[in-house]
Amino acid sequence: MFPGDIAVVDRSRTAVDGSIVLALIDGEFTIKRYRKKGARVWLQAENPAFANIELNEDSGFEVWA
Predict the structure, then answer these.
(1) Planar angle of CA 53, 24, 28, nearest 5 degrees
(2) From start to end of the chain, where are the E strands?
(3) Residues 12-52: pLDDT tens digits?
(4) For residue 58, what pLDDT is reported?
(5) Could you tell me which of 25, 54, 61, 18 has the C-alpha nearest to residue 39?
(6) What angle (nearest 5°) sits at the alpha carbon of residue 23, between those of residues 18 and 26?
(7) What CA–CA distance (Å, rounded) separates 44 from 32?
(8) pLDDT of residue 54
(9) 57 membership: H or E segment, kind and range
């Protein structure tokens, strides 16, 4: 996304592996690619300047597709 872009989010959809999502993590929003392999779930950064975010039971997060 670039400055001025608009994201449209449908909270009724379920995120699946590879989809781009809006995530609320510890009170902050981020747009990342949702990844799931077995029990492992993470948010993949498309920009190499940013790290991926691993999610687990202790993470306070919501994911919207």
Answers:
(1) 90
(2) 20-25, 28-37, 40-44, 53-55, 61-64
(3) 888 899 999 999 988 889 999 999 999 899 999 999 999 99
(4) 77
(5) 54
(6) 140
(7) 6
(8) 92
(9) none
